[in-house]
Amino acid sequence: MKHVKTLFILLLFFGIASSHAQSKREELEKRRVELQNEIRRINELRIGQQKKRQSVLGQVEDLNQQIKSTENLIKVTNQQANLLTREINTNTKKISQLRKELEELKDDYARMIRKSYKSKSQQSRIMFLLSSKSFLQAYKRLQYMKQYTNYRKKQGEEIKERTRELQKLNANLAEQKEAKEKLIAENRKTRARLEENRKSQQELMSTIKKREGEFAAQIRKKQQEIDKIDRAIEEMVRASIAKANEESGSSSRDTYELTPEAKALAADFANNKGKLPWPVKSGVVTMQFGKHPHPVVQSAMINNNGVRIDTDKGGKARAVFNGTVSEVQAVKGANMAVMVRHGDYITIYNNLQSVYVKRGDKVVTGQEVGEVATSKTTGKTTLHFFIFKNTQKMDPADWIYQM
């Protein structure tokens, strides 16, 4: 029984470890697929834009994004390979321990068989019972004989079970080794593509350095367009707060007057900071929140009140939390905007070519609010996404999970 208990404890420990590893493996595989789709999307855009003779600056921006995504893909694939290595080592130790326990079980079983063989005759059993000094002792001896027979049967079944477990582990080990080899081969190909992209990036960057002043002027012009859109969004937020307060009998213009229900919703929204879902099914952030140097022309500064997310053509904008549609407006230079209120928090989904909701509609997390517009010039499908608390601008990356 000692060996059976030890083996049970070992299998329980390995089972918990295996469950944790499985969860981590699934998480990494999901991220790897997301990155592959991200790289595919960027590559398709690059090919399409090259046909349209996209500017050198645009090509470098896309290349930078593709290089970043490829580096992340290599990192995630390495993590998967390392996790598989640890699992292979764990399985190897598990197999070694199982073999040892199996041998001990077999030895115990063999000793029981030999002992049973020596006393297997019916006459020996009867004599064992008849030699009892009392009826109680005879009864106990009979019970012992039954227990011994059951234990021998149970130990035989235990050996069969351990043998099946060992065979299963050996099969898993072979699969893990094959999976690891595939990941390593994939990483080699990914690294080769990365080097090609870096070479293209260097060639384009040399062109940009020669014409840095020209490109800086292009960036400043683009920033002016972004500023106009951001100002229009800010005006929409202030007007919407003022309108909501006026309807509730308050004169405040910059801060929502909250009902108990709205306070509860705002608290729920705040409690989900860092855990909110993405506002698109799949996408990549191409412009971050705040003021920072341009990723290509470092001498030029860019500023953004939200984030810009490139997604698939025909991609849908989705509510990141339960709320009420407070505004649906056209924004000059950025198509349609949908504003959703969550207490005194606001999320805005801008650059929509079609809208599926109207003012006053209740929306739930994940509900589609509109289709993201695709630029005829660049071929990019880009959502402008904002988060406010009243009129205070907030970084969506602090709120959206893994943004």
Tally of contiguous helical segments: 6
Radius of gyration: 34 Å
Distance between the termini: 53 Å
Low-confidence stretches are none
Q: Report the average pLDDT across residues.
A: 82
Q: What share of the residues lie within helices?
A: 55-70%
The outline comes out as elongated
**How much beta, percentage-wise?**
15-25%
The helix-strand sequence is: HHHHHHEEEEEEEEEEEE
**Pairing-aware structural class of the strands and helices?**
alpha+beta
Tally the structural domains: 2
State the total count of DSSP E strands: 12
Major sheet description: 10 strands, antiparallel
Describe what this molecule looks like in 3D.
It is a single chain. With 403 residues, this protein is α+β, with helices and mostly antiparallel strands. It folds into two domains: 2-210, no CATH class; 212-398, Glucose Permease (Domain IIA). The protein has six helices and twelve strands. The protein has helices at 2-51, 56-118, 122-130, 135-210, 212-247, 260-271, and strands at 283-287, 290-293, 301-304, 307-311, 316-318, 323-330, 336-342, 345-355, 362-363, 368-372, 381-389, 392-394. The strands form two sheets. Strands 1, 4, 5, 6, 7, 8, 9, 10, 11 and 12 form a ten-stranded antiparallel sheet that branches. Strands 2-3 form a two-stranded antiparallel sheet. The longest helix is centred in the middle third of the chain and has 76 residues, at 135-210. The chain is elongated, with a radius of gyration of 34 Å. The mean pLDDT is 82. Residues 18-115, 152-239 form a coiled coil. Keywords: Coiled coil, Signal. It holds the Pfam family Peptidase_M23. Residues 304-396 form the M23ase beta-sheet core domain. Residues 1-21 form the signal peptide.
